[in-house]
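Kindly review this protein for my students:
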Amino acid sequence: MDLFNDLFEEQENLLPKDGTVNYFGQIMSDEEAHHYYSVLLNEIEWKNDQAIIFRKLIETKRKIAWYGDFPFAYTYSKITKTALPWTDTLLELKKLAEKKTGETYNSCLVNLYHDGSEGMAWHSDGEKQLKRHGAIASLSFGAERKFGFKHKETKEVIALNLASGSLLVMKNETQDYWLHRLPPTKKVNSPRINLTFRTIDLEQ
């Protein structure tokens, strides 16, 4: 099922079952999106992402940063990151995401993809530190990229394009039943910045 350039209603669930994904489309002007892209590109403390695969430390071209209310320890791909204190820009965007989604977040994983050759393989955000069935709000800036979901059992695939300045939220049982990915493409030659606002479970 390909949703590429369809019009979206904010509360329409893009998934047919087993979870909830809402795409709000562009929630700011092109000028505002470009402003945030430029600021984030220069003020975020970017570092190459790392993962341990087959007992080997792998460093990716993609760069990341991890921010939060507290110096949370967050582990994925067998590597632990410690959250940095919020920047004013990230707090501004967090407030915007919270207003639009009606949710609250206490942390943010920031990703920088330099061009279409960089992406993310199929995965789900099911790390034990995250609030179970909590919302994850994804803000995109820069290059428009295709984003896909695949059901873990039926293998049904749903895809859409994420525009600069757009907001997508995944919540409820989505991570239990669906994988998602950012596929590589030769058609994109410019960078994309993605903010994923999350909630670390403080009771763990």
Summary: Residues 1-8 have pLDDT under 50 and may be disordered. The chain has one domain: 20-198.
